[in-house]
Amino acid sequence: MLEKALTGSRKYWLLVFSLLAIIGVGFGTYLYQLREGLTVTGMGRDVSWGLYIGQMTFLVGVAASAVMVVLPYYLHNYKAFGKVTILGEFLAVAAITMCALMILVDLGQPSRGINIILYPSPKSVMFWDLISFAGYFTLNIVIGWTVLGAEKKSVPPPKWVKPLIYISIPWAVSIHTVTAFLYSGLGGRSFWFTAILAPRFLASAFAAGPSLLILLMYLLRKHTSFNAGKDAFQTLAKIVTYAMILNVFFVFLELFTALYSGVHEHILHFEYLYFGLGENTAAVFSMWLSAALAVFSLILLINPKTRQKDGFLILACISVFISLWIEKGMALVVTGFVPNPLDQVVEYFPTVPEVLITLGVYGIGFFILTVLYKVVISVRDSHA
């Protein structure tokens, strides 16, 4: 079926070559980082996780969100998601690929990653993270490709796929839970040392992922023959609404616990985020922007009159995605290191090489997604 990705319109090939150009720039910059070392990044002794790991954390949520279309369709036979489910599964494949690449570029020397395989340790959360990533990637690509192949032949999917689908549902929750454990298990980092970090991760995942899927569905509807139907759009919008409400509520719980308890170590992190510490105010604008976009998106999503209008829904989904990208893709990871355990503030700023490499990784992810979606739409067009 991959041969269907070798034909397409001018717009399709323009997108493909644009993504390849972004990938080329990112790969060239990565070779520069590989030669010079991680000194070309903004990371250092005090902030050892930055843009790369922040994006990995955010993209794990995008991958896990596929369960929001898989579960209603396969477990509850919700027909409105019939055209959407495979898009969610292939989005998960692209997102997990980007997660793995973000970890790879963060390692400095990619050979270091082999140590997890050569010296596996069940006591290591990173080991379980590898298992969850690899398993979820395999499940989604096998399920999605097999179901699409059956659709191409106009036959029901083979029976052995059904157990894999059921396994993929709890597995989706596990990949983000294990990722949360990487942070919340570090007792010396008070910002992450909270029992609700995993629920926060899942709430933000189930808001950001479906938001991106809605935006992708609108793009496909505009530029291709694909149309998921109004019910699919509105059901996903309701999922985003509930998940975003939960995410905002969980953030409020974190703020209440830190501020009301008066624990100095906890308060400093939130003070740095929203007000700055002395002259160190790098995160303040972006965090208030994130909060404003979260509130704005909820105003649009909670009101049925605005949620049911395409323009407002697109605006709401963009707001949700940017808000959570700021909160989870940057602030959550970096602020765990700022201030450090000695209350010293060393701010982190991504460098140009970091940004270019990150864009290159996103280019690879969206290139994979473009190819997979092209195959899906071509198969369905041939049976229209």
What would your notes on this structure say?
The chain is mostly helical and 384 residues long. The protein has one domain (2-378): Formate dehydrogenase/DMSO reductase domain (Formate dehydrogenase/DMSO reductase fold, Up-down Bundle), CATH 1.20.1630.10. It is 73% helix and 0% strand. The chain has 14 helices and no strands. It has helices spanning 10-36, 51-64, 67-76, 85-106, 114-118, 125-152, 161-184, 197-223, 230-261, 264-274, 284-302, 304-307, 310-335, 352-382. The two termini are 17 Å apart.
Keywords:
384 residues; mainly alpha; Formate dehydrogenase/DMSO reductase fold
Instruction: Give the tally of β-strands.
Output: 0
Structural class: mainly alpha
Mean of residue pLDDT values: 90
Radius of gyration: 21 Å
Question: In this structure, how is the largest beta sheet organized?
Answer: none
CATH arch. level architecture: Up-down Bundle
Low-confidence residue ranges: none
Helical fraction: over 70%
- Please report the distance between the alpha carbons of the first and last residues: 17 Å
Describe what is shown at a glance:
This protein has 14 helices and no strands. The chain has helices at 10-36, 51-64, 67-76, 85-106, 114-118, 125-152, 161-184, 197-223, 230-261, 264-274, 284-302, 304-307, 310-335, 352-382. Helix 2 crosses helix 13.
Topology:
Layout: H1 10-36, H2 51-64, H3 67-76, H4 85-106, H5 114-118, H6 125-152, H7 161-184, H8 197-223, H9 230-261, H10 264-274, H11 284-302, H12 304-307, H13 310-335, H14 352-382
Helix pairs in contact: 1-14, 2-4, 2-7, 2-8, 2-13, 3-4, 3-7, 4-6, 4-14, 6-7, 7-8, 8-9, 8-13, 9-11, 11-13
